[in-house]
Automatic annotation (TrEMBL):
GO terms for molecular function: transferase activity. Keywords: Transferase. The keyword Amino-acid biosynthesis does not apply. Signal peptide: none annotated. Residues 4-126 form the Glycosyltransferase 2-like domain. Pfam families: Glycos_transf_2 (PF00535), TPR_8 (PF13181). It comes from the Bacteria. It comes from Desulfosporosinus orientis (strain ATCC 19365 / DSM 765 / NCIMB 8382 / VKM B-1628 / Singapore I). This is Glycosyl transferase.
């Protein structure tokens, strides 16, 4: 299995070498397409590959990626961003994949650990196509949050790509979408979803709701997409203090699959705010106990099935006077967030209360 790594970059001097160092000895060809760097990005790239190309930026990520793919010469093409990398255990899995991939496979998906908290816990995990067979001529679509169209036999690997973003959040993507709207460009279903997500991220909740609802109108939506967008809609309504619609969208996720931890935590918080503590406890416990989705393409929130429900159970049990249970759940929350001052303070307080109870 011979692989061309194709990347598009711009002003990535802080991350590019880290990315390439994690994969350069695994790849059989590396193609770097620069879209207008003004720093040392191209110099860094040139140390590891002779294939450093220029592409005039036209506010279209898919166009740049398709240009990069067009220069690949190996049997398979892999893509990464400059702030991605393979951790050591995933490097080993990648090496094994090169030796063992069934030649009939047309594309390989990998997990994408794309968001982390300050304690390095994965807070968002999605699955994306990472490798495609070159003769399939797969194309990218979408000016901003681009998607790779593939068909044929797909292998869902256990390899994870880790995203370590160094850049500050900007409104670049939002402006590109808004300019395209002004130009009368037609939005695909995926454009609508990604534009809604950008609006949501920039706290433009009312307009985000409008486009999330447009996305849900598409008859070809998967169950996973419906669940994810309903959760996003519930959050928008929460931010707008519309509790009735927040609750309705949270329960709507139950139509598509067993309750997801995000929905359970939202219901737990709803009842906690109403001081209905036993109901809050029930839903937070559900968030912990609900199994992982059977669908490997499900979007998984690490927060809602790890430290958050345990921390909230600690609060509920404290208010119920069950200091022993509160202590247990705070200790579990601490295992995920060992430097969290709030949790550490909770544990110190509870240790004093438990000690007093024994005296």
């Amino acid at each position: 299995m011979k692989i061309s790594l194709c990347m598009i970059v711009k002003n990535e001097e802080d991350t590019l070498e880290r990315c390439l160092s994690s994969v350069s000895d695994i790849m059989d060809e590396i193609i770097i397409v620069d879209t207008g760097s003004t720093d040392k990005t191209k110099e860094i790239a040139a140390k590891l590959t002779e294939h450093v190309l220029d592409f005039t930026w036209i506010d279209d990520f898919a166009a740049a990626r398709n240009f990069a793919f067009s220069h690949a010469s190996m049997g398979y093409i892999m893509w990464l961003d400059a702030d991605d990398l393979l951790l050591p255990e995933d490097r080993q899995k990648m090496l094994q994949l090169k030796q063992s991939l069934d030649p009939s496979v047309d594309a390989v998906s990998m997990e994408y650990h794309c968001d982390f908290d300050e304690h390095d816990n994965t807070t968002l995990n999605v699955r994306r196509i990472r490798i495609v067979k070159r003769v399939k001529n797969a194309k990218w679509h979408g000016a901003v949050h681009e998607d790779l169209s593939v068909d044929g036999k797909i292998f869902d690997s256990e390899i994870a790509v880790t995203h370590k973003q160094n850049h500050k959040n900007t409104d670049r993507n939002l402006k590109i979408y808004e300019n395209r709207l002004l130009q009368g460009k037609e939005f695909t279903v995926q454009d609508i979803f990604h534009y809604a997500s950008e609006l949501h991220h920039h706290k433009k909740y009312k307009k985000a709701i409008e486009f999330y609802l447009k996305f849900l109108e598409d008859e070809n939506n998967t169950e996973e997409n419906k669940i994810f967008v309903c959760i996003r809609l519930a959050d928008c309504y929460c931010q707008l203090n519309d509790k009735e619609k927040e609750l309705a969208l949270t329960f709507k996720t139950f139509q598509y699959d067993i309750p997801r931890p995000e929905s359970c935590c939202r219901l737990g918080y709803y009842f906690l705010q109403k001081n209905e503590l036993n109901k809050a406890v029930y839903w937070y416990k559900q968030a912990i106990e609900v199994p992982m989705p059977e669908n490997s393409w499900a979007i998984v929130s690490g927060v809602s099935r790890t430290w958050l429900p345990h921390m909230q159970l600690g609060l509920c049990y404290y208010q119920l006077g069950r200091y022993d249970l509160s202590y247990q759940h705070n200790k579990i929350a601490l295992s995920y967030r060992p430097k969290d001052k709030g949790i550490l303070n909770n544990i110190n307080l509870l240790e004093e209360l438990l000690k007093q109870g024994q005296d």
